[in-house]
Amino acid sequence: MSNSAAPHSILSIDQITKVYYDELTQLARKNRRMSNSHLKKRTTLLFNKNLSTVNISGMFSQKVFVGGAPPGISDTEILNAFGKYGNFTIEKKKANEKSSFFYVIYESNQCVKGLLTTCVINSVGEFYTRIGTHIVQVIPWEINNSHYVPATNMTLLDNKKVVFIGGLHGKMTAKFIAEVFSYFGPIVMVTIDVDKYKYPIGSGRVAFSDSQGYFTAIMQEFIDIETPDFRKTVQVTPQLEDSLCYICKSEVGPFFCKDFTCYQYYCTLCWKLKHSGPGYVHHQPLIRDSKHKPKLGPILSKFSNLSLK
Ligand SMILES: [Zn+2]
Ligand SMILES: [Zn+2]
């Protein structure tokens, strides 16, 4: 049936597909939002340890987060405090009633080392410096903390056993995340997604050695992680890939059903057909978040190459 031949009151297959596609996409976006997280399955994990394990001799991102400055701080005041260590730009300066916070991006990571060596380090390893008379916190990122491969696990990386994690706290290192997720099963690798300055953007990936660990983690939609420093809710979803529809095998399958009776990718119409019957109507679609395209770190690429051989 072509568009032109159809009477005005009857929708073409393309139009129906478009309506269904929009409906499923909206549902998937709603599911992803943290706002309804109280409805989801969640686990609380407690860690009685301090996370600040910054090694001052390590290699740092040229970007640092600065928090706790006065709300009306001027760029000149920031320049006076941070310009001593090198040229820099200020990014994402924001303020609430109590304080302002921003990123300082230096021209090289050596400048960050210069800054850190003059900072005061408190008993839990946090860095503090002054802007005028105000004490502010500096949160650097040690580049090595973006990926972690346990020395004892020689299993090769399998993309089908990788979970995507969102809502990470700025203090969570890849090694710490490996410790958290090893609660569900043995870990092959953890990577934290970073921006062009190699500074974390709040998401990452955990690769499990076996399907049991992977599925146990996936079943927890949210994990509340509590340490003496902070409490943070991390969202866990399957790492979605570009895939053809499992049923028709001809269309792209953008909708993933993570219910264990399905656990497949579907195109719009096949999703509707599959999920119209009893026992399937409550299944919820997941879509890939275009903002979080996987950025493969050096170790991940190395492992991917290995697994292709
Ligand atoms: Zn299909
Ligand atoms: Zn389903």
Automatic annotation (TrEMBL):
Entries under Gene3D superfamilies matching the protein: 3.30.70.330, Cytoplasmic polyadenylation element-binding protein, ZZ domain
Signal peptide (from-to): none
Domain RRM: 161-241
GO biological process, one term: negative regulation of cytoplasmic translation
Sorted UniProt keywords: RNA-binding
Keyword Signal among UniProt keywords: no
PROSITE patterns associated with the record: RRM
A GO CC term attached to the entry: neuron projection
Pfam families linked to this entry: CEBP_ZZ, RRM_7
SMART domains, per database record: RRM (SM00360)
Transmembrane intervals: none
InterPro entries in UniProt: CEBP_ZZ (IPR032296), CEBP_ZZ_sf (IPR038446), CPEB (IPR034819), Nucleotide-bd_a/b_plait_sf (IPR012677), RBD_domain_sf (IPR035979), RRM_dom (IPR000504)
GO molecular function: mRNA 3'-UTR binding; mRNA regulatory element binding translation repressor activity; ribosome binding; translation factor activity, RNA binding
PANTHER family, A to Z: CYTOPLASMIC POLYADENYLATION ELEMENT BINDING PROTEIN CPEB, CYTOPLASMIC POLYADENYLATION ELEMENT-BINDING PROTEIN 1
Protein name: DgyrCDS7952
Organism, as annotated: Dimorphilus gyrociliatus
